[in-house]
Design brief:
- There is one protein chain.
- The chain is α+β, with helices and mostly antiparallel strands.
- Helix content is 47%, strand content 23%.
- It has a single domain, classed as Beta Polymerase, domain 2 (2-Layer Sandwich), CATH 3.30.460.10.
- The protein starts with a helix and ends with a helix.
Length: 117
């Protein structure tokens, strides 16, 4: 399955389970770990776990089993590793605290500055 198809499968699963504040980051020029990082929020521990489970199930049906799932027990931040796509499902307060979007935006800004200067 192509990366874009996998990304679309993930996004559909997130939308189906009413994940909020879905952000997609193309990080292929910033890291060799993954190509796409998707961050979404859930409203409670149960909602976060359900969203992550829906992503795992949808991707498995599409022929891409998750390489790993971390944080399911607590349900505050669940990471689903699909190799080319990594999905972070977080409760809003955890998401605000870690600010992954800002971290990756700063990484992109610093890369641009170092390439220019």
């Amino acid at each position: 399955m192509q990366t874009d198809e996998l990304k679309d499968t993930v996004l559909q699963a997130l939308e189906d389970l009413k994940a909020t504040d879905i952000v997609e980051l193309d990080v292929r020029n910033m890291t060799s770990v993954t190509d796409i990082m998707i961050i979404a929020s859930g409203t409670s521990n149960r909602h976060v776990k359900s969203i992550a489970n829906a992503v795992v199930t949808a991707c498995k049906k599409a022929g891409v089993p998750a390489l790993g799932v971390e944080g399911e027990r607590e349900g505050e931040w669940v990471l689903v590793d699909l190799a080319d796509v990594v999905v972070h499902v977080m409760q809003p307060r955890i998401r605000e605290f870690y600010a992954l979007e800002k971290l990756w935006a700063l990484t992109e800004e610093s890369r641009g500055k170092s390439e220019q200067g």
